[in-house]
Amino acid sequence: MKSPNSVKINGFDHIPYHLDTFSEEELIVKSKSFYEWLDKRRSVRDFSDKKVPKEVIENIIKSASTAPSGAHKQPWTFCAISNAELKTQIRKEAEIEEKESYESRMSERWKKDLAPLGTDMNKPFLEIAPWLIVVFKKAYEVNSIGGKHTNYYVNESVGIACGMLISAIHNAGLVTLTHTPSPMKFLTKILDRPGNERPFLLLPVGYPKVPAYVPDIKRKALNEMSSFYE
C-alpha cells in the first residue's frame, strides 16, 4: 500500500524517514556501550554441536540484508546449511584446498603471521558447527528470459553485508569465524549455485565449545588506525 505521505523524486516514490534522536550525552553513552559490546566479539574455532533454531539464522540473514548496496541491487545470496552430508562434503573439499595452500601456496611469512592465531589446514568446525552460512556475491543479475543486468560495487556491497552478518551473529549470542578456502569454486558445485554467483565468504555459526580458547591478541588503539581532520 502506498504511503499517504510519500512524494515523487525523479519519478519514484519516497517516504519520510524517522530516526530517534538523542542528546550529546546519550550519544556518547550509546556509542561507547556499543563499542564495548562489539569489542567482546572474537573469532572462535572451537564450536559446540548444540543446535541453533532455524529462525535465529533467518533473522541473522535478514539483518545482514539491511546493508546498503550499489543502486540497491542487493547482490548477495546467503546459503544456510545444517545438512550433515553437505557439511561433510564442504569440509572435505575445503581441507583439500587448505592443504594445498599450506604446503605450496602460502609464503613462510604468511604462515608465520598466522601462527599466533592457532589456525592450520584442519577445519573440524565445518562439520561441528550446527550451521554454515556461505555468502555468494552476484556478479550480475539474470532476468526471466536470460538477459544479464549489471550489478554495481558488488564486492563493497557484499563486504558490508558480511560485516553486518557477523555483528548480527554476535548479537544473537553466537560465535563465528571467517573462513575463505582459496579457491572456493567447490562451494558453487556442492550447493548447485547459478553461474552468476561467486562464493565470497564461509561462516560457521553456533555456540562456542565449553571451554573455548581464543588467541590472546590485542586490537589496534584508536590513534593507530584513525586520523581526524578537525
What does the overall shape look like? globular
- Overall helicity: 25-40%
Q: Largest sheet, if any? A: 4 strands, antiparallel
Number of helices: 7
Structural domains: how many: 1
Percentage of residues in DSSP E strands: 15-25%
Distance between the termini: 45 Å
CATH class: Alpha Beta
Give the CATH architecture: 3-Layer(aba) Sandwich
Oligomer classification: single chain
Q: Regions with pLDDT < 50 over 5+ consecutive residues?
A: none
Number of strands: 8
Structural class computed from helices and strand pairing: alpha+beta
List the helices and strands in order.
EEHHEHHHEEEHEHE
Instruction: State the CATH topology.
Output: NADH Oxidase
Radius of gyration over all CA atoms, rounded: 21 Å
* Adjacency order of strands in the biggest sheet: 3-4-8-7
Mean pLDDT: 94
User: At the fourth CATH level, what is the homologous superfamily?
Assistant: NADH Oxidase
Summarize, please.
Helix content is 36%, strand content 17%. It has 230 residues and is α+β, with helices and mostly antiparallel strands. It has one domain (42-214): NADH Oxidase (3-Layer(aba) Sandwich), CATH 3.40.109.10.
Give your account of this protein's structure.
With 230 residues, the protein is of the alpha+beta class. The protein has a single domain, classed as NADH Oxidase (3-Layer(aba) Sandwich), CATH 3.40.109. 36% of the residues lie in helices and 17% in strands. The protein is built from seven helices and eight strands. The strands form three sheets. Strands 3-4-8-7 form a four-stranded antiparallel beta sheet.
